[in-house]
Each structure stands twice: as C-alpha cells, then as structure tokens.
Structure prediction request, 421 residues.
Amino acid sequence: MKVLIIGGGGREHAVALALAKSPSVKKLWAAPGNGGTARICENVPLGACDMEGVLAFCRENRPDLVVVTPDDPLALGMVDMLEKHGFSAFGPRARAAELEASKAFAKDFMQRHGIPTAACRVFRDKASALGYAKLCPLPVVVKADGLALGKGVIICHERQEALDAVEKLSASVSGSTLLFEEFLSGPEVSQLCFCDGEHVALMPASQDHKRAYDGDEGPNTGGMGAFSPVSVYTPELQGRCLREIILPTVRGMREDGREFRGVLYVSLMLTPQGPKVIEYNARFGDPETQAVLPLLESDLLEIMLAVHDGTLDGLRIRWLDKASCCVVMASGGYPGKYEKGFPIFGLENAAAYGTVFHAGTELRDGEYFTAGGRVLGVTAVADTLPEAVDLAYKGVFEIDFERAFFRRDIAKKDPLLGGGV
Ligand code: AMP
Ligand code: GLY
Prediction:
C-alpha cells in the first residue's frame, strides 16, 4: 500500500517509522515531512493545510491511505475533503474533530453526556467575559475557544491576572468566545486511544511536560518530553476512565451524529475527586506519540485500516510490556524566537541508546540542520522507566547543536524515579 502522512513534526516521524515496519507498506510520502522522514519517506513540499495541493497530489499519486496527523487540517476538514473525492483517510472528519477545535463545544458535549470535567462558564463576547472576570472565584483558568498551540490557556491566581487574561486572549485569537474553568489539581495523564466510531483500543498512557524549563517553570510549549506508562495511573484508574469518560465520549459522539474515527486523545487530570477531562484532542499527541508508538508491537497500518473500516473489535493489538521515555531537544529561545540552520552533531552515537525522532530538522547534502523550535525527540525503551530515562539522557548527551536546550527532569515526578506524583 501507498501511504501519505500529512504533517512534519516528531510525531509524524514516529508514525512514519511505525508504518515503515509494516510489510504491507510499499511507499511512504510525508507532506511536508522533515529531515528524519526524508530517510524513510519521500518528502512532498506541501503545507499540512494545503487542501488543494494535497488533493492534486492524491489525484496524481493515488495513495491507498492518507494519514491526517495535525490538528489544523483535521479541523479544516481535510478528511471530509479527501473522502468526498474518493480517497481513504485516517483521522476524524471535521464535525468529530470539533471535540478538539472548539473547547466550548467540548464542554457542552461533556455536560450533556455526564462526562466528568472542570466546571465552566462560557462567554461569547469580551464585555461579559470582563464582567465575569471581576467577580469569579479564584484561582480560575481562562481559555480561548479555538486551536491555539497551547497558548490559549492562562491560569490566574489574582483578580488582575484574570482581567489581563481576557484582554490578552480576546486580542490574540480569532473569535471572542472565552471559557472560565474551575482550577483543578493533580497529576496529568495523556490517554490516547484508537477509535473506529464504536470500538476503542487504549494505548499505553503517557505524561507530557508542557513547560519549557525544569520543575515546570517557564512558558508553555508544545511539549518538552514524555514517558510511558505512568505509574500513578493504575489499571483500576484506567478502567474507570474507560467506563466513565472514554466509552461515554465515543457513544455520545455517535449519538450526536459525529462518529469519531481516528486517535482520540483524552487529557486527564487525576484529581482527589477522581479523573476529570482537561481537554480532548482529535489526533496523536506530540511528544506523547514519540514515547508510545515505540512500544507498539502490532502493525500500525493494520490498526489504521481497522479504524477506517470500523473493525477495531476484531483486532488484538499488542504492546511491549516495557517503559519508554522521550526527551525533546529544542532550539535556544523556544517557545519564543529562536535561530535555525545550525548543524546537528552526534546523531549516530545517540542511536546506540534509542531512536532519535526528528521534528524541526532539515536534511541537506546528507547533513542534518536545525529547522524548528522542537528539533529532536530522543526516545529510549527499556524494561523499567528509570532505565528508559537513563538511556534517553545518554542519547541526548551525545547530541550537540548550537544553543540546544532540553529539560533534565523528564519523568522525574513519577514515583518510580523518586517523585511525589
Ligand atoms: P490545555 O491546552 O487545555 O491542555 O491546557 C494546558 C495546560 O493548562 C494543561 O496541561 C494543564 O496543565 C493546565 N490546565 C488546563 N485546564 C486546567 C484546569 N481546569 N485546572 C488546572 N490546570 C489546567
Ligand atoms: N502534547 C500535547 C499535544 O499534543 O497537544
């Protein structure tokens, strides 16, 4: 089969490497891809949201499956568009992807279907949002409605912060719908699952590290590292989330005429009152996918086809009974301004410890150069989490590029590494 992967981050490299292992895959393209996918796919110079370009490419090259990985083309309806023209695509249609694309829609959905989540008030205009910010209980979490690359959430402890958050979010994102959420606390878990509209297959759970610096300091990023599994998320808790959150979500979406096919990513907070949904994503997470997919033993293409065909219940998906850790190496300055174009050294040596997924890299004349904020995800798999962490950092210390930075505490909060939670 010929498969086109839409996107160009570390997650897409991880998907590409997993698909490349499938004996049924004869040809892989990545649009736009990166330096890492260039080794296993043919990179196609198309933006991930270039609807017309992707359609023209498909008409010419007839892929058997298009894997639409990032959030924005899913929200724009790339899957709908491809299906309308007779192509098979992996990923939810736009009406299902709204679970991620609109936080107000997701909240209303959860409230209607009795799915546990933070209490919330939604305001459709700035004046009423400001009015509420003056008197709401604190702390409060103010969120923009739409996709905002992790920049649409502000946690406010003081009154003035809540007022400033309204000003900032209503100026920076399109649309004026804002959410005010009850502040929750507890460990966070990313539960990704394959979903064929009716049946669900859970992936091993993982935990992301969203802040830029050690100790969860600094600005929010796309994610600076992830590990799997998460020991505080016990099999009992996972079973509870499946019953109380995931299955009701899938059923609710079907009842609402928004059948969800693809990867459903539920971001959970394990609060003292039980697990609650922080948000939904309608896709593989990044960097979570770089930690989770190396644990997959089964054929990813087979799973994707079963998701597409609605036959996931007939499949037994096998995962390694091991742990994995992914440490992201980023460009100095990220998530703010950073420079690109620096040569990357030490990739071969790092490969002795695990897999180096490429995110913001470019391959030029056989050499790799930095080309983005998150540059690499160094992932190691081992029998235990402490061993996986150790190996991942050994890999990281082999790699060098100008102004590289990474967190030194990935997975350190897990009790297996001596953390409190
Ligand atoms: P989101 O973009 O909705 O995933 O939010 C980004 C981050 O903000 C999450 O990973 C949480 O750490 C934090 N967050 C979001 N909602 C809440 C909430 N209701 N209470 C506490 N923290 C939150
Ligand atoms: N790691 C967070 C995300 O993929 O949205």
In short: The CA atoms of residues 117 and 276 lie 5 Å apart. The pocket of glycine (ligand 2) is lined by residues 208, 223, 281, 285-286, 288 (CB under 6 Å).
